Structures are given as C-alpha cells and as structure tokens.
C-alpha cells in the first residue's frame, strides 16, 4: 500500500489524478493521498510526512519541480514520478536519464504502469537515487552552460547597491557570501556588523537583478556559479560536505549552506586544490 503526494499548482489536474487513483484497478494499492498546490507546500509536506511516491508537476510558478527535488534530502525522498504537459525540454531531461514521467492529461493505464514500477523501485531505491542525481546534474549543466559569461576584465563590481527600507545600502563585494534565486526571487547573502555581538551576522536582501545579470558582473576569480540557482564567493567557502551522487554541500561563512552540482563540485575542489 502506497502513501501518495500529488504536487500540482492546477486544481483540475490534482482532482483528475485523485479520481484516477480512486479507480478500482488502482485504489487497492493506495493507502492515503495528500496534495500540495505549489513547491513550497510540497517541501513542507515532504519534510513532515511519510510518502512512498510523489507525483510532481514540473511547470509551477516560483519553485518548479526540479527545484523541489533538489531541496529534498535524498535519504528522505520518496519515489518521484514527474507529471508534465508537453514540454520538450523536460521530456528530453527525463528520457536522457531514464526517469519516469506522465504526460497530462494522465491516462489511467499509464498511471497504473507507473505505480507498478514504483513498487519495484521501492525494493531497490539506490538505482532511482542515481537516476535522480543524474537528472539534476543534466538540468544544472544546461543552466550553467546557458548562463552569460562575465562582462570582461576590469568591469566587475567592487560594491553592490541594495535598496533597503527607506535607504540604499552600499555593500563591499567581499562581504557577499552568495547570490541565489528561489521561487523566482533573487537574494544576496551578505555579512554585516552586528551591533549586539562581536561577530558579523549573516543577512539576506532581495535584489531586482536576475542571477544571470549579477553573475555577469562578478569577477570569475572570486565568484563561481556552483548550481543553476546559486553563485558563491570562494573566499567564504569554509567546508565541503559530501552530499549525494558526487555532489557537495558547501558550508559558507556565517553558517550558510549551498549545494553544488556534481560537475561544479569537481571544479570547486580543483579551484581549492583539494
């Protein structure tokens, strides 16, 4: 019996999948069904619940399905079956990495076949973990390859202007820990003096730049895109923690953490002479 989570921002799509899972030929293998209407809610439910399989939509506003998958601890991740309307990019990603997916509207026979495969995968989750790792690596590689290069020698930012309440903060570039995009919002993580303590504190600020725009203005000698959604400053990397599928979690100044893709992890290790 399977505990199921349906993640889709479209209510009719969730309702259709619920109805299909209630069919007699399928319902006997289902224990419980829960829903999430966006990526943030999906992460909350995956963190607090126990699911055997998640039907995960790709095209969701803010946090898409790939980002949800990327943020779930592999040791706690259920079997993932992606659902998508026709999307050539996503389908190429799935087929290149032998990952199961269902095209909307989902046919009943394809759904039953997917659930049969889920039961088999649950018996040996390691192969599925490897496929998911390769999928994320494939997506990361395309994003990094498609990112614009730095603007040119001598044109890099030395300080960053950040609107904050009724003023504009001028942040020296060496205080920038990382730049990240999540839910469509770009955030800059910086160190700033703490008036109540002896050590600087970590703060985040929302900026109007895209990750690509900021990346093109930061010196490649000091900054590196380590993931499709994150840029870090080398001087603030304090520790590399093994993650999964050859990836590393980067422990940064101030206790902040960023996960690097597998290929980018290799480059980070080379740059740090590890």
Report on this structure.
The chain has 274 residues and is of the alpha/beta class. The protein folds into two domains: 2-146, Response regulator (Rossmann fold, 3-Layer(aba) Sandwich), CATH 3.40.50.2300; 159-271, Beta Barrel (OB fold (Dihydrolipoamide Acetyltransferase, E2P)). The chain contains nine helices and 15 strands. It is elongated. The termini are far apart. The mean pLDDT is 86.
Give the integer mean of the pLDDT values: 86
Q: Helicity level, as a percent range?
A: 25-40%
Q: With helices defined by DSSP (H or I, 4 residues minimum), what is the helix count?
A: 9
In which order are the strands of the major sheet placed? 2-1-3-4-5
Q: Nutshell version of this structure?
A:
The chain has 274 residues and is of the alpha/beta class.
What are its keywords?
alpha/beta; 274 residues; OB fold (Dihydrolipoamide Acetyltransferase, E2P); 9 helices; single chain
Produce the secondary structure layout.
Blueprint: E1 2-7, H1 11-21, H2 24-27, E2 30-36, H3 39-48, E3 53-57, H4 65-71, E4 79-84, H5 88-96, E5 101-103, H6 108-123, H7 125-146, E6 159-164, E7 167-172, E8 176-182, E9 185-192, E10 201-207, H8 211-215, E11 223-227, E12 230-233, E13 237-242, E14 248-252, E15 257-260, H9 262-271
Parallel strand pairs: 1-2, 1-3, 3-4, 4-5
Antiparallel strand pairs: 6-7, 8-9, 8-12, 9-10, 11-12, 13-14, 14-15
Helix pairs in contact: 3-4
């Amino acid at each position: 019996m399977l505990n199921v989570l349906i993640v889709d921002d479209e209510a009719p799509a969730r309702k259709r999948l619920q109805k299909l899972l209630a069919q007699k030929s399928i319902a006997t293998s289902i224990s419980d069904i829960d829903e999430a209407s966006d990526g943030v809610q999906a992460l909350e439910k995956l963190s607090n619940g126990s699911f055997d399989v998640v039907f995960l939509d790709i095209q969701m506003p803010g946090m898409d399905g790939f980002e949800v998958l990327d943020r779930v601890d592999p040791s706690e991740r259920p079997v993932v079956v992606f659902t998508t309307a026709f999307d050539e990019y996503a389908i190429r990603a799935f087929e290149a990495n032998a990952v199961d997916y269902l095209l909307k509207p989902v046919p009943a026979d394809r759904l039953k076949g997917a659930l049969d495969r889920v039961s088999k995968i649950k018996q040996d989750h390691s192969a599925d973990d490897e496929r998911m790792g390769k999928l994320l690596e494939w997506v990361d590689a395309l994003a990094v390859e498609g990112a614009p290069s730095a603007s040119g020698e001598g044109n890099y930012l030395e300080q960053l202007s950040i609107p904050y309440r009724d003023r504009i903060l001028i942040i020296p570039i060496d205080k920038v820990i990382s730049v990240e995009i999540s839910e469509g919002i770009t955030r800059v993580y910086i160190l700033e003096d703490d008036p109540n303590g002896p050590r600087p504190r970590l703060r985040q600020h929302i900026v109007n730049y895209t990750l690509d725009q900021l990346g093109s203005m930061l010196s490649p000698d000091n900054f590196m895109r380590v993931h499709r959604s994150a840029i870090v400053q080398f001087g603030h990397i304090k520790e590399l923690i093994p993650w999964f599928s050859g990836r590393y979690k980067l422990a940064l100044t101030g206790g902040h953490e960023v996960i690097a893709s597998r290929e980018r992890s290799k480059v980070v290790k080379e740059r740090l002479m590890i």
